Automatic annotation (TrEMBL):
Keywords: Carotenoid biosynthesis, Transferase. The lineage of its organism: Bacteria, Bacillati, Bacillota, Bacilli, Bacillales. The keyword Transferase applies. Its EC number is 2.5.1.-. SUPFAM superfamilies: Terpenoid synthases. Pathway: Carotenoid biosynthesis. One of its GO terms (molecular function) is transferase activity. Pfam families: SQS_PSY. This is Phytoene/squalene synthase family protein. The keyword Repeat does not apply.
Length: 277
């Protein structure tokens, strides 16, 4: 039991270090659900780090995928904290296995695709890397009726990923990735050269706002089903949605400077958001 608790604490450190917004929102959950969120986040972070920071990401991701297959067959030694904690989560909750597999599929996209032609393509990518996370979390957040919340869970994860895209344009171009759809770039007169040189033009602002409007629509769709979550999960889910949506306003306050400034929500702002829920 002590080893399992230590495994969960290792997962907690991962979420606290890498996503303070996520950690803050879900800190309101009861302990069993909160710890499950930590473990699921650690899984997602492991895959993300392989793609973004791995020395041989193709090989490392293939190895991780094989580990997950062994884990599902109960053939993987549970030596790593993340797998040990995740094993406990799979025992406690009716976990959506397909969502875990599709999340890996989404991360694989970053290994061979770094430009997108349409907003539909961007949303498909956003579903695979983040909408799937919503589906991973639903059985934990709403154990009795998670299958009725699928559309909202997908919408929330996808909205969060579009928010990440709009916040991280400068970081992504350093990795030679542009998630702004080419057809919208053409429509608003934004060139790849302007992105690479970090120019915040009027056209760029219009393009950014066009995508932000879609993200805000998806947040609204996600919140339509909030009353169907159990009471102990409603505030955390609303908190996560409101905090992440607030990142968009943070970018606006920074005059859309996403190339040299990373927009974030302060601890004080997070407290104010939670107090208003």
């Amino acid at each position: 039991m002590r080893k399992l608790e230590e495994a969960y604490e290792d997962c907690h450190r991962i979420i606290s270090r890498n996503s303070k917004t996520f950690a803050k929102a879900f800190s309101l959950l009861p302990a069993s659900k909160r710890k499950a969120v930590w473990a699921i986040y650690a899984y997602c972070r492991s895959v993300d780090d392989i793609v973004d920071e791995g020395a041989s990401p193709h090989m490392e991701l293939a190895q991780f995928e094989e580990q997950f297959r062994l884990f599902l067959r109960k053939e993987l030694p549970l030596e790593d904290s993340m797998w040990l904690a995740l094993d406990d989560v799979f025992k406690r909750f009716e976990i959506n296995q397909q969502a875990f597999e599709e999340m890996i599929k989404g991360q694989k996209m970053d290994l061979f695709k770094n430009r997108y032609q349409t907003m539909n393509e961007v949303e498909e990518y956003s579903y695979y890397v983040a909408g799937t996370v919503g589906l991973m979390l639903l059985p934990v957040l709403a154990p009795d009726n998670h299958k009725h919340l699928i559309d909202g869970g997908k919408a929330l994860g996808t909205a969060m990923q579009i928010t990440n895209i709009l916040r991280d344009i400068g970081e992504d171009i350093e990795r030679d990735r542009i998630y702004l759809p080419q057809d919208l770039m053409n429509y608003f007169g934004v060139t790849e050269g302007q992105i690479k040189s970090g120019e915040v033009t009027e056209g760029f602002i219009q393009l950014w706002e066009h995508m932000a409007t879609r993200a805000e629509e998806l947040y609204s769709i996600a919140l339509e089903s909030i009353e169907h979550y159990p009471l102990d999960a409603r505030l955390p889910v609303k908190g996560a949605a409101f905090m992440y949506r607030a990142i968009l306003n943070s970018v606006r306050r920074n005059h859309y400077q996403v190339f040299t400034t990373r927009s974030f929500i302060t601890q004080e702002e997070k407290k104010e958001i939670l107090a208003q829920l």
